[in-house]
Specification:
- GO terms for molecular function: DNA binding; DNA-directed DNA polymerase activity; nucleotide binding.
- It is an enzyme of class 2 (transferase).
- It holds the Pfam family DNA_pol_B_2.
- Belongs to the DNA polymerase type-B family.
- InterPro entries: DNA-dir_DNA_pol_B_CS (IPR017964), DNA-dir_DNA_pol_B_mt/vir (IPR004868), DNA/RNA_pol_sf (IPR043502), DNA_pol_palm_dom_sf (IPR023211).
- This protein is an alpha+beta fold.
- It has two domains: 1-154 and 219-309, no CATH class; 159-214, no CATH class.
- Helices cover 32% and strands 26% of the residues.
- The chain is built from nine helices and 14 strands.
- The protein has helices spanning 19-23, 42-46, 86-93, 116-131, 135-152, 166-170, 196-202, 205-214, 221-244, and strands at residues 28-32, 52-59, 67-69, 72-74, 80-85, 98-99, 104-112, 159-165, 176-184, 187-194, 249-253, 256-259, 284-289, 292-296.
- Strands 1, 2, 5, 6 and 7 form a five-stranded antiparallel sheet that branches. Strands 8-10-9 form a three-stranded antiparallel sheet.
- The longest helix is centred in the C-terminal third of the chain and has 24 residues, at 221-244.
- The radius of gyration is 24 Å and the shape is extended.
- It starts with 18 loop residues before the first helix and ends in a 13-residue tail after the last strand.
Length: 309
């Protein structure tokens, strides 16, 4: 079910063990609720009375509020506009951003602890597997924790594969195009794809929506967006902590930070979700783009030891 319309209104005004897993724990998740919000005021954002997604321009640059630009997430400076998750927007406002106006909003009901039991079980499995030297189980648990939310954000499949007779194939409407056909005697294995453009033009939006719902795609972009937003809030809170300590941030991505000094030990615990783990200490690094960098290490091998220091 999709959220209903919301109106326009203007107001003045180190490495992180599965961060996506932590983001799926106790925080709320958006579930569609059928009502219309006619007025959204900035006070409702600050008082946490609104939950959902808002389209709004914002000002300032701190690197906390991203927008999608040419297929990539960027944190622009100056005045910019985007569709933001309400909790991430509040986080940015609390740390210096200025919200200029709200143009559209999509309200959701807050669902609490949706994945709490599953994520805790997977994390315990990962920790125990690491202690018991079971790398396969550890990797499976970590993969499930980090990848589950992505299933909600997958592009819906518009294809359908069936075994049909020639008569059934000939009775296909213009709303379906044949992608492939493999003959098995009197039957054929046929893969078809929904012709969205033809249906929209000839049958209307309501019929197209009915077809899309019937395709059986169990996806929820709102949940996927909320999880990634919560994840950014977690890593960004560590960035702010580093800056407050006078540290320089040389690199950061979804679940890691490169700093020129240590963070407090109380935020480092590889067994707890959302906490940091010191992965490496290195002499020099060159950071080209996300996931592309060069690190220079200094290794020391001592006689009688099987590992490096």
């Amino acid at each position: 079910m999709c959220p209903l319309l919301v109106s326009e209104s203007k107001v003045a005004l180190d490495d992180l063990p599965p961060v996506e897993g932590e983001a799926q724990l106790g925080a709320g998740f958006p579930f569609a609720e059928e009502f219309t919000i006619w007025t959204i005021r900035i006070i409702s954002i600050r008082r946490e009375t609104f939950y959902g997604f808002l389209e709004a321009p914002a000002n300032e640059y701190i690197g906390l509020l991203p927008i999608k630009y040419q297929g990539r997430l960027v944190c622009p400076g100056g005045t910019f506009k985007g569709l933001f998750f309400s909790e991430e927007l509040r986080f940015a406002l609390a740390n210096g951003y200025i919200l200029l106006e709200i143009q559209r909003a999509f309200s959701f009901k807050r669902g609490v602890n949706c994945f709490l039991g599953l994520i805790e079980q997977l994390n315990n499995m990962k920790v125990e597997a690491q202690l018991n030297n079971q790398p396969t189980i550890r990797n499976i648990a970590k993969l499930l924790m980090n990848s589950m939310y992505g299933r909600f954000g997958m592009h819906p499949s518009l294809t359908n594969t069936s075994i049909w007779t020639e008569e059934q194939i000939n009775s296909l409407t213009n709303g379906w195009d044949i992608l492939s056909k493999i003959d098995f005697g009197e039957l054929s294995l046929v893969t078809t794809i929904l012709n969205k453009e033809w249906i929209l033009e000839n049958l209307g939006e309501e019929v197209l929506l009915k077809h899309l719902v019937n395709m059986g795609n169990d996806t929820n972009v709102a949940i996927a967006s909320a999880v990634t937003a919560y994840s950014r809030m977690i890593i960004n809170s560590y960035k702010l902590q580093a800056l407050n300590l006078g540290l320089n941030i040389y690199y950061s991505d979804t679940d890691s930070l490169v700093l020129d000094g240590p963070l407090p030990p109380e935020v480092c615990d590889s067994a707890r979700l959302g906490m940091l783990k010191l992965e490496h200490t290195f002499k020099e690094g060159i950071f080209v783009m996300p996931k592309v960098y060069y690190l220079e290490y200094k290794f020391l091998k001592l006689p009688g030891r099987t590992s490096y220091l």
